[in-house]
Amino acid sequence: MAIAINVRADGDSSSEVEQLWDQVAAFEDEPSMRTLGYRPHFTLAIYDSLAIEEDTARQAMLSAATSEVQLRIEFRRIRWFVGPPLVLWMEPADDVALRRWHASVSAAIDPAYCRLHYRPGQWIPHCTLGTRIIDGRRHDAIAFAGSFNRSISVLFDVADCVVFPPVRVVAEHKLPAGLP
């Protein structure tokens, strides 16, 4: 089991991301994001559950979220992690707030306990679209990513702490609306 600290989108604005999940699923051996049973999100940190306690992660999440408001994030590009397997993800246009959140979580829990790709200097803010791209569809998936030419705006309105697999929310904090 693992523990993750996330910012997720619970509202209707995430529907376009979920539609992209369905499109990306055509390149996968099974639809990874729908199977996950969890909303579009940014993961700020992942820890092995033997390394830290759930309460420690919950406190770090609450500490990071306490003075924050909902995040309106714009996406204009689909990118990929080479893998294997190839992973498609959406790149945020402006990630200043996300980096602040990540720094707050990293300050609350020693990054040495965090999985490598989520540590300071390694973390790349991303909203995952598909994690199970099959090798035979790799080039098609990259072409799909390269052809994306629109803008999607999503409101991330909940900070949470989850354990997985399967995903189970152990704590959440609904974020207040920001200035109009």
UniProtKB/TrEMBL annotation:
The keyword Ligase applies. InterPro entries: Cyclic_Pdiesterase (IPR009097). GO terms for molecular function: ligase activity. The keyword Ligase applies. Keywords: Ligase. This is 2'-5' RNA ligase family protein.
